Amino acid sequence: MITIKQLSLALLLACAPAAQGETLRCGSQLVSVGDRSFEVEQKCGEPAFRDLVGYTLGPYQRRELKIEEWVYGPSNGMLTILTFEGNRLTRIERRRGR
Q: Which residue of 22, 30, 39, 61 has the fewest C-beta atoms within 10 A of its own C-beta?
């Protein structure tokens, strides 16, 4: 029979990959979704590439927000792609470099 401890551990392990995608380590600093672009640049330095993806409407459609992707790496064969909307980090994505 499954104990409460075993069930709790299984749920914790199932949530681990989702939590990992929300932060990025830059040296001894952590970058998180919601950080401003200048904070990310202070912690991680200049990205290898910056791409303007386009624009989107804000939450209440009163203004346009610029969408940018910053690429860091490759580091150990992995690229890290940060997506900013209106100077706020909205997504951290990791991909194997080619």
A: 61
The string of pLDDT tens digits covering residues 6-41 is 555 555 555 544 444 589 999 899 999 999 999 999
Contact present, 72 and 47 (Cβ < 8 Å) = yes
Burial 38-65 (b: 16+ CB within 10 A, else e): ebbeebbeebeeeeeeeeeeeeeeeeeb
Q: Is the pTM of this model over 0.85?
A: no
Q: What distance in Å separates the CA atoms of residue 71 and residue 47, rounded to the nearest whole number?
A: 6
Q: Domain spanning 22-96: which CATH class is it, in words?
A: alpha beta
